[in-house]
Amino acid sequence: MSSQSATSQAGVVPPKRRRRVGRHDLAPWLFIAPGAIIFGVYVVIPIFQSFWLSLFEWDGITVDKEFVGLANYQQLFEDEQFWTSLRNNVYWLVFFLLGPVGGVAIAVFLNQQVRGMRLVKSLFFFPFVLSQVVIGLVFSWFYDPEHGLLNAVLGIFGVPPFAPLSDPNMVTFAIIAAGLWPQVSYCMILYLAGLTAVDPEQIEAGRLDGAKGFRMFWHIIMPQLRPATFIAVVITVVGALRSFDLVQVMTDGGPYGSSSILAFFMFQQSITNFRMGYGAAIAVVLFLIMSVFIAFFLWRMIRTEEH
Amino acid sequence: MFPAPIDKASPPKRYLYYVAVVVALVAWLLPLLAVLLTSIRSAEDLNMGNYWGWPKEWKFSNYIEIFQATPLLRYLINSVVITIPAVFLAIALATLGGYALAKFKFRGNLLMFCIFVGGNFVPFQILMVPVRTMTLRFGLLDTYWALILFHLAFQTGFCTLFMRNFISTLPNALIESARVEGVGEFKIFWHIIVPLLRPALAALAVLLFTFVWNDYFWALVLVQSDTVKPITTGIASLRGQWLASWQLISAGSIVAALPPVAMFFILQRQFIAGLTLGAVK
């Protein structure tokens, strides 16, 4: 890239090269413009618009919006449903991290060169390509207290029938479990890719030092899987904060709002209750929580770029 | 290799491993097997409470009935009409942008890159009201274009990140020598860079197809008519109407899941290559 770094000192290059310099300066912008414009219109600008909108009371239909300052936020912090949703978001964040844990466990379990293993890995992985709607339907059926396979199987072991999706104390965890299914698959595939790149010499050295089983895994393998872990954790955190589909499909936030999360609460307020300003305020809170993780991710990415 | 290769273990250990793999696999796919079994059951079976016993008759006709009794086929076509152009256009824009970010040094390069990457992670809800209002103002609410435009715009973020990282690995010498010979910038891109991107483009296309096909949230927010609805919101609304007919809903769910699953099994290598980019080094 040395030829371009010279062009940044446009003022001092000899006149003969000036035409080429101008062309180089414009070219990247022409290449990037179409993507940047449409991304700006649909993603970047709406973020600011939502911040602005959160200061208004608006039903989404009438032309007039009423400026209410921070009243939406004030109301939000007194809204019990907001705190329920936020608490459930924390549950999602914490328990979704079982995704990478389960992923690495299955990856290690399946990392063998046996005939037919490729198919087995694919079968473990493919829940990831199912849509969340299908997963929601599959698990609604699976959890069904009368007809579901879960109760049928647990019944064999003498567990009395129960309804995970109708119990306010259980419902969020039941949905998270459904969400973990494709998430574990995804993390597994990241770790399987990571395991192929593990340095065999380090394993040999570890064996000579008497490291075995879990000690070997923890001290020699895991450090080498760090890039996979980083991506798995980032994707899992984003996935946890973004989850919406499963809640909407499986319980519609119920029973009595007990399985609501911020993303769903926002949708409900804006689309069902026509409170766009209030919805925007909820979205802003969710965005700010996410920003912490986005900032961390960008910071790490830039740091590794510089190396 | 870690863990130690199982084929070097003693035979009993080896067989134990095979059994464990099969048991784990069945347990893992149990919820899906339940749906698969239900989808070929008769209504009588379900009414009689025969959920998990041997079915009285195998009713593969459930799969025909779901197509005849519901607009499922329409939903599938809608999904195709929305997904294909969105994937194609997002990749086209991102290849152009990714090239600029990978091979040109210009002021704002890093900032642009961060915006694309960061934007890609924002929660959808922060975009929802403005995007919906804008779509309404364009007169596109409840049309294919509402979803095509949004998906193409949003996915451009992820795709640009992907293409930029891939193009960065191509040698600069190729571009520089072409420049010395006076080849125009766009010609360099089109004739030298793009032909080298084939594996990356394939991987990205498969991934993106799955992402867009499986979208539920935006379909819920931007379209509502049966004539436009994709399969995701389609199957969800069928479930509302056919609450008691689990055998049909199961069959519908299987149909809805089939295209991305088929895509995955056919183009597995590309799919996994795309997904695990960056997980290794």
What is the compact description of this entry?
The complex is a heterodimer of chains A (about 300) and B (about 280). Chain A is an all-alpha fold and about 300 residues long.
Describe the structure.
The complex is a heterodimer of chains A (307) and B (281). Chain A is globular. Mean pLDDT of chain A is 87; it is low at 1-23. Chain A has helices at residues 2-7, 18-53, 71-78, 80-96, 98-110, 117-125, 132-143, 149-156, 171-196, 200-208, 213-224, 226-242, 245-250, 262-272, 276-306; strands at residues 56-57, 66-67. Helix content of chain A is 72%, strand content 1%. In chain A, strand 1 and strand 2 form a beta hairpin. Chain A is an all-alpha fold. Chain B is built from 14 helices and no strands. The longest helix of chain B has 32 residues, at 72-103. Chain B starts with 10 loop residues before the first helix and ends in a 6-residue tail after the last helix. The model of chain B has no long low-confidence stretch (mean pLDDT 89). At the A-B interface, helix 1, helix 2, helix 5, helix 6 and helix 7 of A face helix 1, helix 4, helix 5, helix 6 and helix 7 of B.
